[in-house]
Amino acid sequence: MKLFKSNCTKILILALNLALVLVFFGCEKKYSELTIQQELLSDIEKLNQKVTDFQKIVANTNDEKKIQQAFNSTRLSYKKIEWAVEYFTPDPARFINGPALDELEVAENTFFSPNGFQVMEELIFPHYSIENKTDLIREIKILNGNLKQIKQHLSAITISNSHVLDASKMEINRILALGITGFDSPIALQSIPETKSSLGSLKKLLPKMNFNSPESKNCEKEIATIINQAENYCQSNTDFNTFDRTYFIKNFLNTISKKLVAFQKINAIKNTNRNSVINPNTATIFEKEAFNVNAFIPSEEYRYTEEKAALGQQLFYENSFSDSKTRSCSSCHNPEKAFTDSLKTNQSLNGGHLSRNTPTLTYASLQNAQFWDMRQLDLEKQSLDVIQNKDEMHGNVSNAIQTLNKDKKYQKLFKKAFPTSKKIEEWQIQNSLASYIRSLNAFDSKFDNYMRGNSDDFSDEEKLGFNVFAGKAKCATCHFIPLFNGTVPPSYQKTEQEVIGTPADKNGKKISPDLGRYLQYQMPQLRNAFKTPSLRNVAVTAPYMHNGVYSTLEEVVDFYNKGGGVGMGISVENQTLPTDKLELTEKEVKGLIAFMKTLTDKAYQ
């Protein structure tokens, strides 16, 4: 009888153990089968819990270290879903981890106050004050509301493999241009740990696409291996200022980007064309054909063609557009000087001087606004503005057309450029001039060739300079890699202006009287605001700033090193440039300038 009971007990225990094993493996199986969308929603729930815990900590303690740790932990959790939030819900995303600056709607003369992590960061770092508690709790509640909106949206949409792959490629570009540069962690400087978190989330996506061919699985493993190496590198190199971005981009981010394109090709995943600026098949963002100039045209009939560019090149030297018949576009934009004029400001028609420095036309097509004050949205309107400007050309396009119609050379060029058109029209002239400018993006500098792996010719000083540019000096938080202008990656739908407090002269006692973009839109945030220009070919396009106040790169770097206008002692109420000194060493300054010289195209070397 005892033996029978003993055996029954053993059988019962075995049955219970078996049940537990089945439950355990059943749960494991269920977890592994979560779709990308389901896991994404689960991660949002985890983030919501982090936000709730963060709010409780802020409400119940004034301990600076605990609050800062809770903040860092919460944003690390956000970084796990950043790839999807930024891709599928860009509007609310702006108020989750966007810059702590007013969002301007200039056409409506309205603005939205910033919200999100970067606003909280300013309230917490470098030191937390109890006076900020109320504002901080309010920001946390707003964040919670935005996350609910995002969850609702992500629950309702269909997330295809094409979307996931496109979002993954955009996230790599975001990490490169905004993540490792400190753009979204400007004070806490948690960019490197956050990069590790962002990459870790991408690693989990490809296996969930369920492509099972040996070639696909092998590519999956290769990407996972590279991401593991990148994560380990971030883990071992956490200091923001000393992080080697040159090495990290070349060896990890570029390699991951290439492998993602290979994975897409192996599995015949279609392009989504959600981001029209970047060629969806480009191996990396540094490739010569990575950027699409047609993403910046007013409408489809303005598409770039070589025939339009050839016509535009002839029109660029045409004097008939000016009232005096003595000026052409080349009068100020000299091709031998990277389409600048080497003057502080050029001469006006009335014998005086223009109010602003002549910017280079190279890479001007890769931005969403033209002129220093951004008063025109595209190159077509820009050309007409210059032709009609009483101080520049004071011309009339209609009158010029009469001259062009009599020229057989132009008749042939127009026919090639616009084969279906029966006569020369004003828009065709604008489009042709704009098309020529769109042909001026060479992408063949020393930096380009190095980043593409076509050359190892990049000195230690130049590498240091790039790392300072994209790190300690934070130049890349305004001059975004790889265009080095103010067109914001990775979607490139917006071009930024900045208020840096440029002085009226080298003495640096007063701000330049030029009100910049404020002249078009009387918003206090735009007083003395100017477009962030491209730094490509910057070594050969002196003098610098909108008023040509600085004649050397050394002077420009010194201005920023001091903290812009405010750092120099000028009163600038709305300066968007950080006012603290960069404290660059002499070696770092030399390296920074050496790097900027590597951005010169072959034609101007």
TrEMBL record:
Places the protein is found = Cell envelope
Q: Gene3D superfamilies, alphabetically?
A: Cytochrome c-like domain, M75 peptidase, HXXE motif
Primary subcellular site in the record, as a coarse category: other
Pfam families annotated for this entry?
CCP_MauG
Every copy of the Cytochrome c domain together lies at: 307-441, 460-600
PROSITE patterns referenced in this protein's UniProt entry, alphabetically:
CYTC, PROKAR_LIPOPROTEIN
Keyword tags: Heme, Iron, Metal-binding, Oxidoreductase, Peroxidase, Signal
Entry-linked InterPro entries: Cyt_c-like_dom, Cyt_c-like_dom_sf, Cytochrome_c_Peroxidase/MauG, Di-haem_cyt_c_peroxidsae, Imelysin_sf
The terms under GO molecular function for this entry are: peroxidase activity
Under the heading SUPFAM superfamilies, the entry gives: Cytochrome c (SSF46626)
Q: What name does the UniProt record give this protein?
A: Cytochrome-c peroxidase
